[in-house]
């Protein structure tokens, strides 16, 4: 199971990498537009530097045609590095680009997936990751968890190396549901990691443990003091 940060904020990335077992960062044009920067490539390289060699960066193309997507992929690899995962919307033109880029050895994340068939096509086109949009599916009255479990079954039955990186979440229940459905990774806003690890109930549990220990061994005592 892999956990990703769905952000382009350098401070948020730096902080999360220090705290959590993060596998990488995913971005999209909307996420990038929220950050103040004069040079997009310099910003992406700064993210890559924070991630280091053992984590991955996923960056989305903007072109509507396969030719444009392929050209953008080349530019991204030139400026950010050959290890970047090129995120490609799973449209007809996107699938065409995926097939060609896969033959070139480009790392591909098929994104904007809201149906089983989209994912199946992307897997067969050579995508390394498929990114189903959980909350968007639910907004369309699509059973997102059924879609995720079906994609996971398809990958298993086909003995495919493609991995599911579920995206587009609005709450922890959706994230937990996606993991239960068999996805290989989730990419979420950094705030969800904080939310999961800082509830009032959790803090009370920790405080109770500490109070019980202090009653037995003295105020503010830890194992370092014994």
Give the key terms.
single chain; 226 residues; alpha/beta; eight-stranded parallel barrel; 11 helices; 8 strands; 16% strand; globular
Structure described in brief:
The chain is 52% helix and 16% strand. The chain is an alpha/beta fold and 226 residues long.
Structure write-up:
This protein has 226 residues and is of the alpha/beta class. The chain is 52% helix and 16% strand. It has helices at residues 10-19, 29-33, 40-51, 66-80, 92-103, 116-125, 134-139, 144-157, 172-180, 190-196, 200-217; strands at 2-6, 24-26, 56-60, 85-89, 107-113, 129-132, 163-166, 185-188. It has an eight-stranded parallel barrel, surrounded by seven helices. It is globular and about 70 Å long.
Radius of gyration: 20 Å
Strand content: 15-25%
Shape: globular
Q: Unreliable stretches, pLDDT < 50, 5 or more residues?
A: none
> Which strand order do you get reading across the main beta sheet?
1-2-3-4-5-6-7-8
**Cα end-to-end separation:** 38 Å
Mean pLDDT: 96
Structural category is alpha/beta
Helix content: 40-55%
Largest β sheet strand count, sense and barrel closure = 8 strands, parallel, barrel
Number of helices: 11
Which sequence of SSEs, written as H and E, runs from N to C?
Answer: EHEHHEHEHEHEHHEHEHH
Total strand segments: 8
Task: List the topology elements.
Elements: E1 2-6, H1 10-19, E2 24-26, H2 29-33, H3 40-51, E3 56-60, H4 66-80, E4 85-89, H5 92-103, E5 107-113, H6 116-125, E6 129-132, H7 134-139, H8 144-157, E7 163-166, H9 172-180, E8 185-188, H10 190-196, H11 200-217
Parallel strand pairs: 1-2, 1-8, 2-3, 3-4, 4-5, 5-6, 6-7, 7-8
Helix pairs in contact: 1-3, 4-5, 5-6, 6-8
């Amino acid at each position: 199971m892999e956990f990703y940060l769905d952000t382009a904020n350098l401070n948020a990335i730096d902080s999360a990498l220090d705290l959590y077992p993060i596998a990488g960062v995913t971005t999209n044009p909307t996420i990038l537009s929220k950050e103040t920067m004069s040079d997009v490539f310099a910003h992406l390289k700064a993210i890559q530097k924070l991630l280091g060699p053992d984590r991955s960066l996923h960056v989305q193309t903007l072109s509507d045609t396969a030719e444009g997507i392929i050209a953008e992929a080349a530019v991204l690899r030139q400026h950010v590095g050959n290890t970047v995962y090129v995120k490609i919307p799973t449209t007809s033109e996107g699938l065409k680009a995926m097939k060609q880029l896969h033959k070139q050895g480009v790392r591909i994340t098929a994104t904007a997936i809201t149906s089983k068939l989209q994912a199946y096509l992307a897997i067969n086109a050579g995508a390394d990751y498929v990114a189903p949009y959980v909350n968007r599916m639910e907004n369309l009255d699509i059973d997102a968890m059924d879609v995720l479990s079906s994609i996971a079954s398809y990958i298993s039955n086909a003995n495919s190396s493609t991995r599911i990186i579920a995206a587009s979440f609005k709450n922890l229940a959706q994230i937990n549901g996606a993991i239960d459905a068999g996805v290989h990774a989730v990419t979420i806003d950094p705030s969800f990691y904080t939310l999961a690890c800082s509830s009032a109930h959790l803090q009370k549990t920790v405080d109770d443990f500490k109070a019980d220990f202090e009653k037995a061994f003295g105020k503010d005592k830890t194992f370092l003091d014994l």
